[in-house]
């Protein structure tokens, strides 16, 4: 799930019909929401967790998905992938992780 998908899932679940409503609920400027949605700038942890909360998905899974998308280190990327595959639960073992 990329940031745009997260924004759209939150919008659908919350029933917002505009970016203005969505941004207001998050307490951010509509231009900032557009940047998040387009992947221009990464969402900060607050934004990710609030969007995940609105979308009724695991905030940790949403944060892992966001980080996974941008991570260049293969070991760290694999760690984020494992969290995503476990539905937002932290892996049992950190062996092999960054």
Name the descriptors.
single chain; 98 residues; 65% helix
Query: What is the structural class?
Result: mainly alpha
Assembly annotation: single chain
The overall average pLDDT, rounded, is 88
> What general outline do the C-alpha atoms trace?
globular
Q: What share of the residues lie within helices?
A: 55-70%
Number of distinct helices: 6
Count of β-strands: 0
Low-pLDDT runs = none
Tell me the β content. under 5%
Radius of gyration over all CA atoms, rounded: 14 Å
Distance between the termini: 22 Å
Encode the helix/strand succession as letters: HHHHHH
Major pleated sheet: none
Structure explained in plain terms:
The model has no long low-confidence stretch (mean pLDDT 88). It is built from six helices and no strands. The longest helix has 12 residues, at 3-14. It is mostly helical and 98 residues long.
Quickly describe the structure.
This protein has 6 helices and no strands. It has helices spanning 3-14, 19-26, 30-38, 45-55, 59-70, 74-85.
What's the SSE blueprint?
Layout: H1 3-14, H2 19-26, H3 30-38, H4 45-55, H5 59-70, H6 74-85
Helix pairs in contact: 1-3, 1-4, 2-3, 4-5, 5-6
